[in-house]
Amino acid sequence: MTSDPQGDMTPDQATALAGRIEAQLNQVLIGQPAITRQVMIALITGGHVLIEGVPGLGKTLLARSLARVLELDFQRIQFTPDLMPSDVTGHVLFDSQTGDFRVRKGPAFTNLLLADEINRAPAKTQAALLEVMQERRITIEGETFSLEPPFVVLATQNPLDQEGTYPLPEAELDRFLFKILIDYPSQEDETRMVEMVLDGRLPDSLDAAQLTPEANAEAILALGRQADAVIIDRALVDYILRLVRATRDHPSLVQGGGPRASIALARTAKTQALLAGRDYVIPDDVKQVAAPVLRHRLRLGVDADIEGQTVETVLEQLLEQVEAPRQ
Amino acid sequence: MDLNKINARLAPRSSWQAVDVGTRLYRRWWRQASLVWLVFTALPFAALAGYAAATRSVWPLLVFWWLKPLWERPLLAFYGRALFGDYPSPLTLLRQFPRYGLNGLAAQLTWRRFSPSRGFLTGVWQLEGSRGERVSGRIGVLLRPPGQRAGTLTFTVLGLEHAMTVALVVLAMTLVPWQFNMEWSVWFQEQGHLQWGFVNLAWYLVLMVTEPLYVATSFALYLNQRTWLEGWDLQLGLTRIGKRRRRAGQGGAALLVLLALFGAAPHQVEAQAPAESRLKSLLQEHGRSDFSRDNDTTDHPTPKQQAIELLASDTFMPFEERQDRRLRESLRDDDDPDNWWEDLLRRLLDQEADADDRDPLAVPDALITGLGYLLLALLLLVIVLMVRRYLPGLGGRQPDGKPVMPVRVAGLDTRAESLPADLALALEQELDRGDVRAALALLLRDGLVTLFQYRPLPLTAGATEQDCLRAYRSELGDAPVIPWLTTLINAWTRTAWAHRPSDQHTVRELMAQWRALRPALAGGAS
């Protein structure tokens, strides 16, 4: 299964560019290389990301840094219980000077949108954003506006602070390409971070201003085209399907991955291969992206939950049990 | 022991009714019995549980559990005296312990510790004061039906004890506010000091209920058995009749005659004393229907003679042929082990038949006891296995944890028998056919199988080529085989997944390197 490259850069150039972007991001998000890699994959694949982690781990910094390095337009919405759909998409207002109605575009008209604490907004506002994420178009008072590519939403949610939240329905969670779990850095990395701040190599408040732009929106789209051109063998597609279908039959899960999960797994595996410097996918690429692609699409049964299992442990089991692809 | 002072109504009852009487005894004196339990056990338990929590060891609690017969002695002493209207204080029981608590204790703490009739038989030593050979005789007599329900009672209370402990722990945990984020499965696994202390405390609180209950019910069963065997109810009935007759002779004769004339006396007597009613019915069966009037006629024998005749009759001294089989005798008499099982089976069936005659709800007690023993044996087996698994220093050994090679790794057949006898020849044949992919697959399969035999690692069916490489790189470090394996897997990956076959020269070079590496690995399998 192959496709012809359509980008204006070679695979090696694409890999090198992605590597430089990752290196820039890792300068500010210390000790989280897996997170930056996953965000890069989602960005190049053109998918949205749901990031879960406690406050203070650099979620906003990551989004700002990404916008800075890629010279993308960046907007942030703090989701609150009184946020209205028009606060996200925009609205029409009457201009008294011209005596006419004009459209005031909301923060969703951007390349990189940080939806902070998305599960604090009511379902109606969440649905408005999720519609934008799916359609990549916004309709205001009957007029439809297409969003400029790339359009990526980085939504965050806090795992501990559950009071006053509106959990995202499974159908809406499925719209996210990845769900990334961000955790505290290791002691070694945290030590390094503190030392860098004390030495003056990093400012007290880490920000993205120190980063230098490496690419632009067009380069991101070109990386996406290169990722599309990565070769994926039919045996690997079969492996992906076996993996996803196994989630539907697993006794600990009451909901497995759907076809959208299979597609997401194949597409992100190709991007992962590109970032690893290959123009072909190997089984390890699939295994590497399986957890962020699948974890938010699976629902654990009550019995398994009581037994102390988690979606992560079930996924680990599946990756060990589902036979590696035969060639 | 003066039966006239007894606080309970003695009557021959079924075992379950006797157990019910025991629960009533407990409900009546639960405060005093719990206090006795606390006074005798609180300090030892605190010391042992504290040591167990500090060392996270189960042995101190096992010691407390093992000493249960010791803790039960004061409770039985209390019930035994309370039944006759004497309520000893815990301090009195503590002071008098050497008098009532030591006889037979050594036996109960050693070879009789696992006796399912423990609570039922304690009275033989403690209340009857039996010693030596007499103990076996008494036990043999007491364990005749219906006394054999004692085993069922013991296992029932044991089950109750465990269920209540778990229920109490779970109940307490459900009351913990959710903000503490307490995951109970994790909580039990952590085994911290708090967990140990809490579970032990819950167990002790449950014991404070179940132990006094167990002793009371066992004691009631014991009393019931003796009532059956020794006719305590009849003894009491006869005593009452004697007293009433004396009173009637002194001044109430006219009243008795009057009552007899109106035919009301028998009903009153029956209502007041069931034992007298039982006596009367027995007398009527033996042609003594004039029981109530015997005082008025001079032709009939005296009451004393009547009683002697009655006790000597078939009702009290029936000619009974009884055959008991015991395991020890059976083995001694017959060396054929098959007969042992046949005998046991016969005993079970006989008991079942007997039990059916007595009680429609009866289940053979020996069967329940046997099941209890089976469960106990399984529990011990689990403990032994756990000790061997986790404490190899205590004489156990580490289990053979050698991983098993999956049939297929990285999508390749890794059964040793699927490989050709002459690898080099097979590889050349594939190259001659121009199938580089098949040649590389052969080489990789042989490499993985040989490496696995050399150093078995826990590979799974889902392991990829890179997983295998990572695992062996981590295991073997800088071994010469690792660069070879890296080159081979890179070549294989490109061929298999990018459809870019390596050139034949590379494959032959890898084969040549493998020839040099393989003997060392194949010969040094660990």
UniProtKB/TrEMBL annotation, chain B:
Transmembrane segments: 34-54, 74-94, 153-181, 201-223, 248-265, 366-387
Keywords: Membrane, Transmembrane, Transmembrane helix
Superkingdom per UniProt: Bacteria
UniProt keyword Acyltransferase present: no
Protein's recorded name: DUF4129 domain-containing protein
Originating species: Alloalcanivorax gelatiniphagus
Taxonomic path: Bacteria, Pseudomonadati, Pseudomonadota, Gammaproteobacteria, Oceanospirillales
